[in-house]
Design brief:
Oligomer: single chain
Number of helices: 7
Strand order of the largest sheet: 2-1-3-4
Structural class: alpha/beta
Strand content: 5-15%
Shape: globular
Distance between the termini: 44 Å
Radius of gyration: 20 Å
Number of strands: 4
Order of helices and strands: HHEHEHHEHEH
Largest sheet: 4 strands, parallel
Length: 171
C-alpha cells in the first residue's frame, strides 16, 4: 500500500470517528472496506478482451488481433485482460481438459474487471464470458469497430455483433 493510500485511510478513519463520536471505533470490516475503496480509486481499470481465438478463423491471426485489441485498451490508460493471448502460450486449446482449464481461469480473471469489451463476432467461448459478465453486473460494451475496419465495414460489423449479443443475452 502506498504512503498516499495510508494517509488517505487515516484521514477517512478520523472523519468517521468525528462523525460517529469519540467512543466509536471502526470495525475491521469497515476498515477493510474503506481500504479496498481507496485502492480501487488508485488502481487502473481492467478491461476484459472478449474476442475469438480458436473456434472461428485462424488461431495465429486471432492472436495477432488480440495483441492489437490489447494495445487499443492500453492507449486508453487501462489494463487489458486477454486470457487467450497468454494461456495459448502454455495450454493446448485442442485438448478438452486444457481448453476447459483456460476458460475457467479466464472467467476468474473476469471477476476483477470493470468492463467486458467485445471486439469480434461472438464465438461459443465468448458466450460464456458474456453470460458471466452479465451475472456479475460487469458492463458489456462493443469496441469501436472503426479502429479495425473502414467506416462501412465497421457499421456492418457492429450491427452483426449487436444482433449476436442480443441472442446471447436473451437466449
Amino acid at each position: 500500500m502506498t504512503e498516499k493510500t495510508m494517509r488517505a485511510a487515516g484521514q477517512a478513519a478520523e472523519e468517521l470517528l468525528k462523525l460517529r463520536g469519540p467512543k466509536y471505533s471502526m470495525s475491521n470490516h469497515e476498515a477493510e472496506e474503506k481500504l479496498r475503496e481507496l485502492e480501487r480509486e488508485e488502481s487502473m481499470e481492467r478491461v476484459y478482451i472478449c474476442s475469438q481465438y480458436g473456434s472461428r478463423g485462424d488461431k495465429a491471426t486471432n492472436l495477432e488481433l488480440a495483441k492489437f485489441f490489447c494495445m487499443t485498451v492500453i492507449e486508453e490508460g487501462k489494463i487489458p485482460i486477454c486470457p487467450h493471448l497468454f494461456y495459448a502460450q502454455v495450454l493446448n486449446d485442442d485438448v478438452k481438459s486444457q481448453r476447459a482449464a483456460g476458460m475457467r481461469m479466464g472467467l476468474e480473471l473476469l471477476k476483477d474487471c470493470g468492463e467486458l469489451r467485445i471486439f469480434t463476432n461472438i464465438s461459443e467461448g465468448m458466450k460464456g464470458e458474456i453470460r458471466q459478465a452479465r451475472e456479475r453486473g460487469i458492463p458489456i460494451t462493443i469496441a469501436n469497430m472503426a479502429v479495425i475496419y473502414s467506416e462501412d465495414q465497421a457499421a456492418y460489423a457492429e450491427e452483426e455483433i449487436v444482433k449476436e449479443l442480443r441472442e446471447v443475452l436473451n437466449g
